[in-house]
Design brief:
The protein has helices at about 55-70, 145-155, 165-175, 200-215, and strands at about 15-20, 30-35, 40, 45-55, 75-85, 95-100, 115, 130-135, 155-160, 175-185, 195. The protein has about 220 residues and is an alpha/beta fold. Strands 5-9-8-6-10 form a 5-stranded mixed β-barrel. About 40% of the residues are buried. The model has no long low-confidence stretch (mean pLDDT about 90).
Length: about 220
Amino acid sequence: MRSKNISFEIPQTLLMLPAACFGAGLGGLSKKTYKLIGDIEVINDDLAVMHNFALGAPLCVLLAELAAVLGAKKFLLAGSAGVLAEGLSFGDRVLCRGAYSEEGTSRHYVSEEYLPACGFDVLSALPVKAAGDSWTTDAFFRENKASVQAYREKGCLTVEMEASALFAFAKSRGFEAGAVFVISDLLYGGFWRSVQKNAQTLKALRALVADLIKIL
């Protein structure tokens, strides 16, 4: 059911950028801008970008649900993540093949612990440093040594806060969903090291978004 307060439609493909604010127009690329908690920039008839909204699985899926009512059927998450495995560092890109759920939202959609990405074969053309699974958690300060080690042993390369929930939502609704991350934190070696300047992460995200817009 569509809310009486929402009277616009968006393209079928939605690029979601948690916590990233790119300013109006995404460098002059957008044709229209809408407000739906965050900002929605319509790039063309096939693609819209949603940005400037908070981190976390519940809000990400809430927005995906609303976007589905407005016409979206393909959801691509692009955000920052911590890296669990050595060999990756700040600014590197990681393509997410699937995610282990340690957040509460996905349980309302599916029962599985592991949710694979579905669709977005076009991402094979995206230059990335690595591809692998992710650990999705909604308890930021419980990313302790034991958990990091456990998910490393499962084969996870990254940790973030949205992917498994978005994949669960998409699976239950018959939609496509994918994710790609920029590394902003290092969690291997027994210590948490964060990028010194948030502007570095934003710069890497801008470059990623520019590449994604080209291939989508």
